[in-house]
Specification:
The chain is an alpha/beta fold and 191 residues long. 39% of the residues lie in helices and 16% in strands. Keywords: Lyase, Metal-binding, Zinc. One of its GO terms (molecular function) is zinc ion binding.
Length: 191
């Protein structure tokens, strides 16, 4: 049985047994917060518990490294929708120590792509077409700096209202300990 078959079989029982009922909530986050976090599997259950975020409390957006790489990309659009359509009035960017993005190198990824069957000519075509593969596939060196960058990008975005607090934190994936990098309330009171 494939993984997909197992998932679909489980889902059929989940629905038939009405297990979904305990997850009912509205689309609006109870704590009026949107959290951008890393997709690291160590954070899936740990992050919400460490932050006291229960089901229905927050909109949680996950990507590699909790990084906003483009001010008008899908991550920023999701944050804007959470603010304007789902009543979020705070944003928390939560990076973590020992993140895979901290050691990401383009040559390493492209070598693996070729090993998995991507033609080198495809990579060359992308590069010659103006795709900056180094920027696209490079991670960060210091997680705190990456969090600061994402917070500043959100806070200075032309479509983010000034009354939205933007916070930056780093979580330890082993203990759940949170380190405050940027207190959005403090920044808001100085403007």
């Amino acid at each position: 049985m494939t993984l997909l078959d197992k998932i679909l079989s489980h889902n059929e029982k989940f629905v038939a047994n009405k297990e979904f009922e305990r997850y009912k909530t509205t689309k609006f986050p109870n704590k009026k917060v949107v959290i951008l976090s890393c997709m690291d599997t160590r954070l899936s259950d740990l992050l919400p518990v460490a932050m006291n975020v229960k089901h229905g409390d927050a909109k949680i957006i996950k990507n590699a490294g909790a990084v906003i790489s483009h001010p008008f990309g899908s991550i920023m659009r999701s944050i804007l929708l959470a603010v304007y359509e789902l009543n979020a009035d705070e944003v928390m960017v939560v990076g973590h120590h020992n993140c895979g993005m901290s050691s990401l190198e383009p040559d390493h990824i492209l070598t693996k792509a070729v090993e998995r069957g991507i033609d080198r000519k495809t990579i060359e075509t992308l590069q010659y077409s103006g795709v900056d593969m180094d920027s696209f596939l490079t991670g960060f060196t210091v997680v705190e700096d990456s969090v600061r960058h994402s917070v500043e990008l959100i806070a200075n975005h032309p479509l983010i209202p000034k009354d939205v607090s933007i916070h930056g934190l780093v979580i330890c994936p082993e203990t759940g300990a949170l380190e405050l990098i940027i207190n959005g309330y403090a920044k808001k009171s100085t403007t």
